[in-house]
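Lab notebook: predicted structure, single chain.

Context: the supervisor wants predicted structures on file for every construct in the current expression panel, including those that have not yet been purified. This is the next one on the list. No modifications to the sequence; it matches the entry in the shared construct table.
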Amino acid sequence: MVHKMQEATTVVDKLRVLYNLQLIDSRIDEIRKFRLNVPMEIKTLEEELSQVKKNLESIYEDISLIKENIDKQNKNIRYSEKLIKKYEKQKNNIKNQKELLSLNKEIDYQKLDIQLSKKKIKELNAKINEKKDFIEKKEETLKNKKEHIFHKKKELNKIIIENEKKEKMLLEKSLFFSKKVDNRLLQTYKKIRNGVKNGVAIAPVQRGAPLGSYLAITPQKYSELIQRNQLLIDEHSGRILIDSELAEEEEKKQNIFLYRYKKNKKD
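Prediction complete. Output recorded below exactly as produced.
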């Protein structure tokens, strides 16, 4: 035997059903927004990882260039040493003092050149050591980021799977409450939801103003609101208004239901 879903008839019943529908749909919105943001979050982490890798590659390239420079200086030293040997040998066959002075001058010049090359090599090796220290830190950062991404992906996938189950349950609840509202009112609710940025069509009034609005409603409208004799629309945002006391009642019921759902899932 099929039982027809009983529609909400009084204003209070309609507000309760609509606000329940709003709470459920807002939670579904959050789940879907989270799912959309996951690839962006992972992308950001992977871009950070890629940047660390690029920095490391750049440092390795710098070290490679420094080593090439060291090789160049060593070649200069070897060349100067060959020249010194050559000039020393030539000294054995000199004919006059002028030639001796000239050769000694060339030998001194080559010795000075060797000293300069050795000084450059020392400075270049110091730079390599500095960069190696920096590499150790960057490699540690790279390792930590890789581990973080691995665990983050695992954590997010777990949340996505849990959210899929939760979303399925919430969609069933949304359908349940949708059937308790007459079609015209349901279409109005959906139209308002689609027309506002945060998807909130039913706004609780707190301290004289609808939640999320800086514009207070008139004292007369607030008086009508707490009497709960008619559905009221906020003239500024176009959203349906609900008094905070009634909204809190339904929020508590929803929280209890979700707590029990979560507890049953764990058990």
